[in-house]
Amino acid sequence: MSAEVESIESVPVSRKQSRARLPRIDSFLRGADRVTHAKVHGANDDWVRTLRLAFQSIGVVYGDIGTSPLYVYASTFTDGIKHQDDILGVLSLIIYSLILLPMLKYVFIVLWANDNGDGGTFALYSLISRYAKISLVPNQQAEDALVSNYHLERVTPELKRAHWLKEKLEKGLISKILIFACTILATSMVMGDGVLTPLISVISAVGGGLTEKVNLTTSMTMEFNPLKAAYLRKHPEDVAGTYYKSIPGPLYWPVFVVSVAAAIIASQAMISGAFAIVSQSQALGCFPRVKVVHTSKKYEGQVYIPEVNFALAVACIILTFLYKDTTKIGNAYGIAVTAVMFITTIFLTLVMLLIWRISILWIVLFFTIFGTAELIFLSSALYKFKQGGYFPIAVAGVLMSVMGIWHYVYVKKYWYELTHMVTKDKLEELTKRYTIGRIPGIGFLYSELAQGIPPIFAHLVKKVPYIHSVFVFVSVKNLPIPYVSSEERFIFRQAGPIEQRLFRCIARYGYNDEQEDANVFAASMIEQLKNYVHDETLFAETTEQQLNNENIRQRPVGQSTVHAEEILEQVAEPQTEQSEPEHIHESKQIYEQELANGVVYLLGETEVRAEPSSNIFKKILVNCFYNFLKKNFRQGEKVLLIPRDQILKVGMVYEI
């Protein structure tokens, strides 16, 4: 619960103090009681739909692994086979690698470390950040943990190891930066993989079928077939086209068709993964704004990003002309894959220590076995840095720079708003100094600040001392979970006396939630705001009546909490229009009338600059690179789906 929610103390206090100590009705609790799990699929799905989704999942998750053998022998024996025993050695490495990494690690261990069904580096980062405050943005609130999808198990002091690790992660800035750096490094490598997988898979499949120069296996199980190895021992000179040459003539074209289809599935798998991971990183403030299209109304998390799709296509075309064969592409691909695997092992070790809290012996065994194997693979892949392995590192460097710069300024902007926010005393001072007029309609002032009133409001009333009849400070906040139900979307707080109709609202989304249309958003918010006003008004009146009762001073110690619960029950009871007091019913009608008068969305058009005293590196980073990214990516009104004729932009300079 929020720190604002307290129980009644039984000591004699003044009326004002007593009222302040009564538990207040949180707008979150009203919605939480009505949470529906209609979005959870599986219980009512028929078996045909389940099989279809299972097939899609296998294609997305394992398509990349299934087509990796396309180039395994050609990439291994780049200079030809020197000794026939090397063939058996390579075949053994393939078999044991598939057993150790994809099957034992990913199927039996990694898949358990999912974030409400979502996987990937950012999903692991989000999962860890719910148990330890490792986010560089200080916008965590106690109410966040009450969201139904949070699934938070409190780390207790009795579990000394987990508690010690939690404290170290939360207090150490270096540890937070390192975890974030590993996250965006893995994300960048996956993006590079999204370029390399379509390139190497399709070239291998098509090129091998037409020119008989590429080794191909259509599925992972073919790696266990000794006829690969047997043919090579007899014809070592055919290492570049072993598989096609070993296929009987009548099966050649059917196998070729299946191979191309498998390559397309693998390519689509990595492209889909790139879309998902960019969407997640954008939601958590780690990537510039891009257009995210949700392709399925029935199933969440299926997204398409036009800008990313175009960038991947251009990169694939350029690399095709640069590399021309699969050998160099395979060298680049190996670095990208093994780097992501090793970072996954590091994150999963943190999950085991902090969340699963299993025996330290199992954790050490896990990290030693899998970490050692992956480091060996990574070191061997880095050995081919000059032969094409530089590409994923170059891509990672560019993407990490973009994501790092964007998140750095994002964090600095948040701290600027937090340190310059309009406090309650400053708000009273503004209302006294400036005669603030009220105009018809509803105004939403957007800000990323979740803890108070943003400084841009003071700038607004100094320049234009008019605000709308109902004025709401809106903070769109992304929680480190995939989804937030619509019933739990909004949290309201009063920014002034309730008759002034000034409110703060936090709209919470998960990183896979779809942003609704602005008018739908406004209607939903106003509906829940009316409920909040009803609860607050009735709560104040009920409290006043109870405090007037002399029995409150005569109750024995221990019954005062029961008294608080009685008040909560009275206020929380659903009210019909007929049973509502007349003044509360009229208050609700005011909000309906103002909604009909129109909604205006006020967006902060902030120009971010480095402080004059900053060093030259910071000035270049903020004034040049960040502002270049901001101008060339999507603007806030497009992301929030706000009609242009309802936007009012407020300009202000932030010196960070």
TrEMBL record:
Q: Does the keyword Flavoprotein apply?
A: no
Q: Which domain of life is it from?
A: Eukaryota
Q: How does it sit in the membrane?
A: Multi-pass membrane protein
Q: Which UniProt keywords apply?
A: Ion transport, Membrane, Potassium, Potassium transport, Transmembrane, Transmembrane helix, Transport
Q: Which residues cross the membrane?
A: 87-113, 173-191, 251-278, 303-323, 335-356, 363-383, 389-411
Query: Residue limits of the K+ potassium transporter integral membrane domain?
Result: 53-215, 229-426
Q: Fetch the InterPro entries from UniProt.
A: K+_transporter (IPR003855), K_trans_C (IPR053952), K_trans_N (IPR053951)
Main localization, broad class: membrane
Compartments, record wording: Membrane
Could you confirm whether the keyword Transmembrane appears in this record? yes
Task: Write out the GO cellular component annotations.
Answer: membrane
* A GO term, aspect molecular function: potassium ion transmembrane transporter activity
Per UniProt, residues of the K+ potassium transporter C-terminal domain are: 440-656
Q: Per the similarity annotation, which family is this? A: Belongs to the HAK/KUP transporter (TC 2.A.72.3) family.
What is the name listed in the Swiss-Prot or TrEMBL entry for this protein? Potassium transporter
Where does this protein come from, organism-wise? Rhynchospora pubera
